[in-house]
Write a structure and sequence with these properties.
Layout lengths: L9 E3 L6 E3 L3 E6 L5 E3 L10 E4 L2 H10 L1 H6 L9 H22 L3 E3 L1 H10 L2 E6 L5 H8 L6 E3 L4 H5 L9 E5 L2 H17 L9 E3 L3
Helix pairs in contact: 3-7
Length: about 210
């Protein structure tokens, strides 16, 4: 008899009051001096303050300081908290890409990515947000059923591969691809206004 699939624990957003799987929210904590800080590792002490990973919700929550009500004390929300969170999420995802590259689970460059797609080894296709449409379209035709990310510029995507720019990259199937997929969904949400998440993250139709 097959085991039931393990469900991700749920958390309630302190702004929307809606409950969702934990991977769809971001945890914040309050530092000893009363400052609200992102807790992406979900390890800081104290009660977690969870927000839906969506840019508009995070900005509204910061502007209205819903953290004080949720924490039941006066806390300080840094003016740059939404931007700091977006930068931390970008770094987190790019670090995972770099880890995949160092472990041999990622390649960059049109020809290498095309070969990996043809071999059926790719779990994630990553396209630079400022890349040319023709190259993206050629690879998209080979990427049926492959999750595609378009969250970073070519300059940003180049860094994990030790080069100035990278327009096309691929992550092979495995634990790192699964982890990057989860983090990229949060990253896309934070960069979005909710309805346009699909512009950054999509599944190519077969």
């Amino acid at each position: 008899m097959a085991r039931p699939e393990k469900q991700m624990p749920e958390r309630r957003c302190i702004y929307t009051r809606e409950t969702s799987p934990r991977g769809m929210l971001v945890r914040f904590s309050v530092s000893p001096d009363g400052m609200v800080v992102p807790d992406l590792e979900e390890k800081l002490p104290g009660r977690g303050l969870w927000l839906t990973a969506r840019g508009d919700i995070i900005r509204r929550a910061c502007a209205e300081n819903v953290f004080s009500k949720a924490a039941r004390r006066n806390v300080t929300v840094p003016a740059d908290l939404p931007d700091r969170l977006a930068a931390l999420m970008n770094s987190r995802c790019l670090d995972l890409i770099g880890l995949a590259r160092r472990s041999g689970a990622a390649v960059a460059g049109f020809e290498k990515v095309r070969a990996a797609l043809d071999a059926g080894d790719v779990a994630l296709l990553i396209e630079a947000s400022d890349g040319a449409d023709d190259g993206r379209e050629k690879l998209a035709r080979r990427a049926a059923g492959v999750e595609t990310l378009s969250l970073w510029t070519a300059d940003q995507l180049g860094a994990p591969f030790g080069r100035d720019r990278a327009v096309h990259a691929a992550i092979f199937a495995g634990g790192l691809a699964d982890r990057l997929s989860r983090e990229a969904q949060r990253c896309a949400g934070i960069q979005s206004e909710g309805a346009d998440i699909g512009a950054h993250l999509e599944l190519q139709e077969s």
